[in-house]
Amino acid sequence: MVLIQIQQRHILRMCTIILLVILLLGQVHLYGMSLASANTRSVYGNTIGDFSGAGTVYGIYISSGGNTTNDFYKNKIYNLSSSSTSATAGLVTGIYFGTLGTAVTGNNVYNNIIGNLTATAATGTDAVRGIAFTSATSTTAINVNYNTIYLTGAGGTNFGSSGIYHTASATATSGSLSLINNIIVNNSTANGTGFTVALRRSSNAVNTINNYNTASNNNLFYTNGGYVYYDGTQSASTISNFQSGVFTSGTVAPRETASFSENPTFLNTVTGSLANFLHIDPSVATQIEGGGTPIAITDDFDGDARDAGTPDVGADEGAFTPALSMSYTSSTTEQVTGFAYAGGVNQAIIRVKVVTTGSLSPISLTSLTVNANGTTAIGDIDAATAKVYYTGSSTTFSNSSLFGATTPTIANFVVSGTQVLAQGDNYFWLAYDVDAAAASNNLVDGECIDITVGSTFSPTVYCTMQAIKQY
What we know:
The chain is mostly beta strands. The protein has one helix spanning about 240-245, and strands spanning about 5, 10-15, 15-20, 30-35, 40-45, 45-55, 55-60, 70-75, 75-80, 90-95, 105-110, 115-120, 130-135, 140-145, 150-155, 160-165, 175-180, 185-190, 195-200, 220-225, 225-230, 235, 245, 250, 285, 320, 325-335, 340, 345-355, 365-370, 385-390, 400-405, 415-420, 425-430, 445, 445-455, 455, 460, 465-470.
């Protein structure tokens, strides 16, 4: 079903498409706006929201590009959903680009607000996308500036999602993506083999980072325990890992050197029809304030003038509270309850929560002094397998980001590494590999004596022990 379809010269502005529920059996596609071939294309000031379908759902769908003007700006897209159980990629997408336009000035996507796209039964590993660029048309430029994208929700088996999806190419001028001054927040909950991703690219083949324009910078990337960056094979779970990333596809630098990560405080993340939807709370300190770089866009989503020297990041410009320099606040050790299984690997024993305030000049945790005190027999823990993992703000254990490893002992030992901390809660996990011959009902345990975050701090401790259980 197409709510608005234009096939010639496209100038769409100030349209409102809301409060629709499409639950027709066999419905394949639902489009808020569908745009086919055209030379001139200006789509701005539209509100598309509060509708759902039983198949694929698109806010704005561009099937093919134009060759004169391609401008998409000041559109609000919110509360789109699909009830489908399909594994289709991009089952729900805010703005979808098929073949890109070859306009001299590029495909310009700016000052858009996109939020709350959901597919609660979807089984695809990339079922929801804020903005998707699904082709790398020869000699095309994509300029994505000052947008705010906010995803949340969960899905079915193997559910995953992306703030922005970009088709990778080894040819720098094919679908060349320039990301500047955007807020990309993905707080969705992944399931199974799916991942929560801020920026997802289609390939990690050699040199395919080439069409990720080196001008890309001053963006906010945030996920709740997911990946800032993922290319189908390799990933970066933190902004620092992303900025320093050397992947098969290429080296990220000099891109994103001034980009940052924080979970911004919005005035309203629920009701898209309100004027303050995905607007920044001015009372909360944020790196968004003055975190952008000047480009040739002079106002924001609301028509407010951009600061000429230090504009704000995202679709909303305002007089926000500047961020403070990061400092250590507290740390707590919590024991993981339950059983550790004989022969099991990467079994979490304790979790160390490190809390920071402020976001500028992030500080790093460089070591944890721990021990295996309380363990019945040190031989139950395989040699050289005391490992510490970092999961960012996520309270769920994962072995995807190793901080450091060393040989475990009953006495104190030090696990060293370098992990740049995020503002708020940061979680580190001590994990063991348990010997297959470990005796049932023996205990494995651990303590965190202190951590080094510039200075040395001793965490508050809450402890219970884990018993070994045979499979």
